[in-house]
Specification:
PyrdxlP-dep_Trfase_major, single chain, seven-stranded mixed sheet, 16 helices, NHTrfase_class1_PyrdxlP-BS, alpha/beta, pyridoxal phosphate binding, pyridoxal phosphate, 406 residues, two-stranded parallel sheet, aminotransferase, binds 4'-deoxy-4'-aminopyridoxal-5'-phosphate
């Protein structure tokens, strides 16, 4: 049997608790700034027009069936996913130093990477994650027996990057540690290193022989430019690192529930690199087989249809610019309204930060007040999902923040 001493009651996932409280609120002015999913200007989920097109193409294809995908997933999807992340002209792809496995979205890719490292990594079996990071990183790695440690990331004063703290901790970590990095649109802070800072990080990571693990959930969604959002990953590859990348198509295709993702292992340039990667692919296939046997087809088929058609691809880029552009507009509007209202403090961080989230600097009591008095819902740490803002609710949000800040 399983008494409470052996299976204690687990706390509710804070995000799902927040979503429940929002749903139960009957106020017409309620605003959901918790959810990490894109919303249009009417606070509705948005099916990307290019996804709708791909969907129609798939539905009208009489050849399609529901057979199993190969263990490593749809090749037409994984090969394009690799080109998207690494660049179509990547020397790593040309040298056959990349192996890619389709996964259960970004979460599955992080998990497969963690599992692979847990089984095969002979360096320091500790992963250093940013403080804070996407909360799931902690449990994904600890569940497979990898120790989780943190490096400083967010400077509470500037609400920007604590680059000194970050580099000091990564320098001080034992050699050959695993370093988890968000290449763009850091969750939850919205704060990214500059390209110059990435270059400095690469120097330290190289010196310490650390192993870079990139978790990329927002390519194209952050700046609207797919290459720019992948520039950190591409730079590290240019520098000859052996590394892994977890790639999610949840946000950039709006395919949240379809679970389309990919895991990439990139070998360092070496005479035997292609053989190394072949060995690694064989082990990844075994891990995948025992976990999920075969990845789900639908989301990968949608993404593959778009990624393999130049016309649809450029429409997708347009859709990405719509999403990222609306979010950037909301950042500008929120900042300028807070400044117009002479809200105490500085608000430049709202427009300096990028991607889905902003770390506002609001305190826990302020967050509570916003929820209880103004029906505005956000996580306790003061993170807001920018996609929850729109031209209808932004005045209410700015005025409420003005009032709770003092
Ligand atoms: N990593 C990070 C940093 C994320 O923010 C997310 C999405 N919240 C994911 C991975 C994975 O999301 P999904 O499994 O939905 O692709």
């Amino acid at each position: 049997s399983f008494p409470p001493e052996t299976v204690p009651q687990a706390p509710e996932d804070p995000l799902f608790g927040l979503a429940r409280a929002y749903k139960a609120d009957t106020s017409p002015i309620k605003v959901d700034l918790g959810i990490g999913a894109y919303r249009d200007n009417n606070a509705k989920p948005w099916v990307l027009p290019v996804v709708k097109k791909a969907d129609d193409i798939l539905r009208n294809n009489p050849e399609l069936n529901h057979e199993y995908a190969p263990i490593a997933g749809l090749e037409s999807f994984t090969s394009k996913a690799a080109e998207l992340m690494l660049g179509a002209d990547s020397p790593a792809i040309a040298d056959r130093r990349v192996t890619s496995v389709q996964t259960i979205s970004g979460t599955g890719a992080v998990h497969l990477g963690a599992l692979f490292l847990a089984k095969f990594y002979k360096g320091n079996r500790t992963v250093y994650v940013s403080n804070p990071t996407w909360a799931n990183h902690h449990q994904i790695f600890s569940n497979v027996g990898i120790t989780v440690a943190q490096y400083p990331y967010f400077n509470k004063e500037t609400r920007g990057l604590d680059f000194e703290g970050m580099t000091a901790a990564i320098s001080a970590a034992p050699e050959r540690s695993i370093i988890l990095l968000h290449p763009c649109a850091h969750n939850p802070t919205g704060v990214d290193p500059t390209l110059d800072q990435w270059k400095q990080l690469a120097v330290i990571i190289r010196e310490k022989k650390h192993f870079p693990f990139f978790d990329c959930a927002y390519q194209g969604f952050a700046s609207g430019d797919l290459a720019r959002d992948a520039s950190a990953v591409r730079y590290f590859i240019e520098q000859g690192f052996e590394l892994v990348v977890a790639q999610s198509f949840a946000k950039n295709f709006g395919l949240y529930g379809e679970r389309a993702g990919c895991f990439h292992f990139v070998g360092a340039p070496a005479a035997d690199a292609a053989e190394t990667v072949t060995r690694i692919a064989s082990q990844l296939a075994i891990l995948q087989r025992s976990e999920i046997s075969n990845p789900p087809l639908y989301g990968a088929r949608i993404a593959s249809t778009v990624l393999n058609d130049p016309q649809l691809f450029s429409e997708w880029e347009e859709n990405l610019r719509t999403m990222s552009g609306r979010i950037i507009d909301m950042r500008k509007a929120l900042r300028s309204k807070l400044e117009e209202l002479e809200t105490p403090g500085t608000w430049n961080h709202i427009t300096d930060q990028i991607g889905m989230f902003s770390f506002t600097g609001l305190t826990e009591p302020q967050v509570k007040k916003l929820r209880e008095e103004y029906h505005i819902y956000m996580t306790k740490n003061g993170r807001i999902s920018m996609a929850g803002l729109n031209t209808h609710n932004i005045d209410h949000v700015a005025q409420a923040i003005r009032k709770v800040v003092g």
